[in-house]
Design brief:
The protein has 260 residues and is an alpha/beta fold. It folds into two domains: 3-158, NAD(P)-binding Rossmann-like Domain (Rossmann fold, 3-Layer(aba) Sandwich), CATH 3.40.50.720; 168-259, ProC C-terminal domain-like fold (Orthogonal Bundle), CATH 1.10.3730.10. It has ten helices and eight strands. The protein has helices spanning 10-21, 37-44, 72-79, 95-101, 134-145, 158-166, 168-185, 190-208, 214-221, 227-259; strands spanning 3-6, 30-33, 49-51, 62-65, 85-88, 107-112, 122-128, 148-152. Helix 6 crosses helix 10 and helix 7 packs across helix 8 (190-208). The chain is elongated.
C-alpha cells in the first residue's frame, strides 16, 4: 500500500480528494480508515481500499493522519511502529510526539492544509520533523502543491499557520454570513443578499490572485468621501485589533490541543 489515510472527514477527505483528482497515487494503492461508513463508502467508490479497523493500514509507505489530536496515541498503537513516512494533518501535535508514538523509526512531516484543497485551491503549511529528509519534505510539498499553494515553515510557526489558513476559510465564511444578515436588515431579500454577497466575495478573492496587494485593490474601489470610504471608516476602528485577537485565540488553542 502506497498511501494510508486515517480519517477522511472535512480536512482528510479534502486532502485525499485532491490527491486522487491530481492522479498522484492510484486509487487501488490507497487505504482509508474512518469510523463513518458513509465516508468510507465515498472513497471506496473511487477505487480506494476502505476499512473500519486501523490495523488494516499497517505497513503503508506513507501514512496521513487526519484525526483529532487527542487520538494520536490510540492510532499509533493500533498501526504499530513504522519506518515509513508519517504526515500529520493535525493541529497542535508536535512532530517529536508523533515520532515517539510510532516507535522512533519513522520520518515525520507536519502539515496544515485547508479545506479548499478539495477544489485544488487550498494552501498548506509544511514543516519537517524528526527523521525527515530534504527529499521527504520536497515530496510532501509536491503532493500538497497539487492541491494549491505551499508555504514551508519551521514547526514552531505551525500553530500560527493553523490560525491563519487552516482555520482561515471559517473567518471569511463568518464574515459573509454577517454581511448577508446585514444586507437583509437593509431590506434585501435573503436570496438577493446571498447572491450579492457571495458573488462579491468570490470575485474579490479572484482579484487578489492577480498579483496586486489587497491595499492596492482596496484603494481602487475607494473614492474619497464616497460610500466605500464611509464604510471603511467604521471598519478601521475595529478590524485590525479584531483580526489579531481572532488569530491569537486560534493559535493558542492549537498549542493547547497539542498538550492534551
Amino acid at each position: 500500500m502506497e498511501l494510508a489515510v486515517v480519517g477522511v472527514g472535512n480536512m482528510g477527505g479534502a486532502v485525499l480528494s485532491g490527491v486522487l483528482d491530481a492522479g498522484l497515487v492510484a486509487p487501488d494503492q490507497v487505504g482509508v480508515v474512518d469510523l463513518d461508513p458513509k465516508r468510507r463508502d465515498t472513497f471506496a467508490r473511487r477505487g480506494c481500499q476502505a476499512f473500519a479497523e486501523l490495523r488494516s493500514l499497517s505497513g503503508a509507505k506513507t501514512t496521513i493522519l487526519a484525526v483529532k489530536p487527542w487520538l494520536v496515541q490510540e492510532v499509533a498503537t493500533a498501526l504499530g511502529p513504522t519506518d515509513g513516512l508519517v504526515v500529520s494533518v493535525m493541529a497542535g501535535v508536535k512532530a517529536s510526539v508523533l515520532h515517539e508514538s510510532f516507535g522512533g523509526g519513522g520520518r515525520v512531516i507536519r502539515t496544515m492544509p485547508n479545506t479548499p484543497c478539495l477544489l485544488r485551491q487550498g494552501v498548506t503549511g509544511v514543516a519537517a520533523g524528526p527523521g525527515a529528509t530534504r527529499h521527504d519534505l520536497d515530496a510532501v510539498a509536491s503532493m500538497f502543491r497539487e492541491l494549491g499553494a505551499v508555504v514551508e515553515v519551521d514547526e514552531s510557526l505551525l500553530d500560527a499557520v493553523t490560525a491563519v489558513s487552516g482555520s482561515g476559510p471559517a473567518w471569511f465564511f463568518r464574515f459573509v454570513e454577517a454581511l448577508e444578515s446585514a444586507a437583509i436588515e437593509l431590506g434585501l431579500s435573503p436570496d438577493d443578499a446571498a447572491t450579492l454577497v457571495r458573488a462579491t466575495a468570490a470575485g474579490a478573492g479572484q482579484m487578489m490572485l492577480g498579483g496586486d496587494s489587497p491595499s492596492v485593490l482596496r484603494e481602487r474601489v475607494t473614492t474619497p468621501n464616497g460610500t466605500t470610504a464611509a464604510g471603511l471608516e467604521v471598519f478601521d476602528k475595529v478590524i485590525d485589533s479584531m483580526a489579531k485577537e481572532v488569530l491569537t485565540a486560534a493559535r493558542d488553542r492549537g498549542a493547547e490541543l497539542g498538550r492534551q
